[in-house]
Design goal:
Layout lengths: L2 E5 L3 H10 L5 E6 L12 E2 L6 H10 L2 E4 L6 H8 L3 E2 L3 H7 L2 H10 L7 E4 L2 H11 L3 E5 L9 E4 L5 H8 L6 E5 L5 E9 L5 E3 L3 E6 L2 E7 L7 H16 L3 E10 L2 E8 L9 H4 L4 H9 L12 E8 L6 H4 L4 E5 L9 E9 L2 H14 L3 H12 L1
Parallel strand pairs: 1-2, 1-4, 2-3, 4-5
Antiparallel strand pairs: 6-9, 7-8, 7-9, 10-11, 10-12, 10-14, 12-13, 13-16, 14-15, 16-18, 17-18
Helix pairs in contact: 1-10, 3-4, 12-13
The structure holds adenosine-5'-triphosphate and magnesium ion (2 copies).
Adenosine-5'-triphosphate (ATP) binds next to strand 15.
Length: 378
């Protein structure tokens, strides 16, 4: 029985483990936290990501290593790659960990991005602002997630406040033009060790305070953007010799795609694929990294995913909806934390809009759900 090692024990590791079980794949998870939510699969506890004594045992016990946590230090990924097969490869991981390297690669692959400039000093911020202007967003190059490590510069006089907030960051910063986008899409893609490549239908996403709150799939009215996104994701995957699932977050501006960032792992905007696609992102990731054939990435119908942030709402409205599915990650409530999600599916877009609307009203989430409902029925 092959053993899949997963670095990081959050909800992504848990959903990977759930998908691995019927494939006859055993999972071994490592994490630095005692309360990692993939707890059902008994994570191996390590002190930190350079705890090579504990990782030595992990590496000896697994056949293939993959990631739930994308910020594993590059040195640790390289060290593991000398002892086990690591997918995605450490170079792909390193590019995705650095917003500057990532956006530079996007452009090399023909994917436009918001205007950006690296920023390392206070004077450098002024120089970058002279080029990019305002509104813009100052971001840490590394380790940001859920909108953390970002400062929105509304006018040039915000420069001091932005520098005070982020200037101490040791890994450098990037200033990006603020894009007044029409909508946000993501493409979930998967590539095997043999180069077989597939994407799921594009997903449309809405964020609240920098955190994903709602996804709809297939994204309505994408037209030629589907094949454009597929070509770009394929080029990127081939350049990185990428193996496994990744997500590419995109802005649509004037009908054109701009690359925001990539996630070198399964992604929150692909959770709908568990119930809404023929093969889920989790199953195809496990298949890809273990050298198994991929499953079909077609949608079964229409799906919407609500993210539960901070604390779980009452499950009853979702559980009493036809084709409604509940996912409790078993985490402690904490402001801003992703503690669960729900997916609702339907064969018809209007039926899905009704189901989403009913749940949103019951949970008083109408504001967040409203744009999604509009997109569905329009
Ligand atoms: P994630 O949790 O997706 O990893 P993150 O912390 O890495 O998030 P981003 O994806 O860079 O952050 O930004 C979060 C959200 O903020 C984006 O999905 C988008 O809604 C908004 N945003 C980020 N950059 C820009 C930009 N240049 N212009 C307009 N909106 C932006
Ligand atoms: Mg990110
Ligand atoms: Mg993002």
């Amino acid at each position: 029985q092959p053993v899949l090692g997963i670095l990081g024990g959050g909800q992504l590791a848990r959903m990977l483990a759930l998908a691995a079980a019927p494939l006859g794949v055993k999972v071994l998870v490592v994490d630095t936290a005692a309360d990692a939510c993939a707890g059902q699969v008994a994570p191996l506890r390590i002190a930190d990501w350079t705890d090579f004594a504990a990782l030595e045992k992990f590496a000896a016990d697994v056949d293939v290593v993959t990631f739930d946590f994308e910020n594993v230090p590059a040195d640790t990924a390289h060290w593991l790659a000398e002892r086990a097969a690591v997918f995605p490869n450490p170079r792909a991981l390193a590019v995705a960990q650095d917003r500057l390297a990532e956006k530079t690669l996007f452009r090399e692959c023909g994917l436009q991005t918001p205007a950006f400039e690296p920023v390392d000093t206070r004077e450098g911020l002024d120089r970058a602002l002279a080029t990019i202007g305002a509104p813009s967003i100052l971001k840490t190059r590394r380790l940001g997630y859920d909108g953390k490590g970002q400062f929105r510069i509304k006018q040039l006089s915000d420069a001091d406040a932005a520098w005070n907030a982020l200037g101490a960051n040791a890994h450098g910063l990037i200033l990006e033009a603020f894009v007044p986008f029409e909508r946000e899409l993501s493409v979930l893609a998967v590539r095997t060790r043999d180069g077989d490549f597939r994407i799921w239908p594009l997903t449309q996403n809405w964020h609240t305070e920098g955190v994903l709150s709602l996804s709809l799939a297939p994204a309505p009215d994408v037209g030629a953007l589907q094949s454009r996104a597929e070509a770009l994701a394929r080029t990127l995957a081939e350049r990185l010799d990428y193996v496994g699932v990744f997500a590419l977050e995109l802005f649509v501006k004037d009908g054109q795609l701009l690359g925001n960032e990539m996630a070198p792992r399964v992604h929150n905007s692909g959770h709908w694929t568990i119930e809404g696609a023929v093969t889920s992102q989790f199953e195809n990731h496990v298949r890809a990294v273990l050298g198994l054939p991929l499953g079909d990435t077609s949608a079964r119908g229409f799906s919407a995913m609500f993210n539960w942030i901070g604390e779980l709402p009452d499950a009853t409205p979702v559980l009493s909806t036809v084709d409604g599915h509940w996912h409790d990650y078993g985490k402690q409530s904490r402001p801003g934390r992703k503690v669960g999600h729900a997916t609702v599916c339907a064969q018809d877009a209007n039926v899905l809009a009704e189901r989403v609307g009913d749940i949103a009203r019951a949970l008083k989430r109408e504001e967040q759900a409203a744009p999604g409902i509009g997109a569905l029925s329009g």
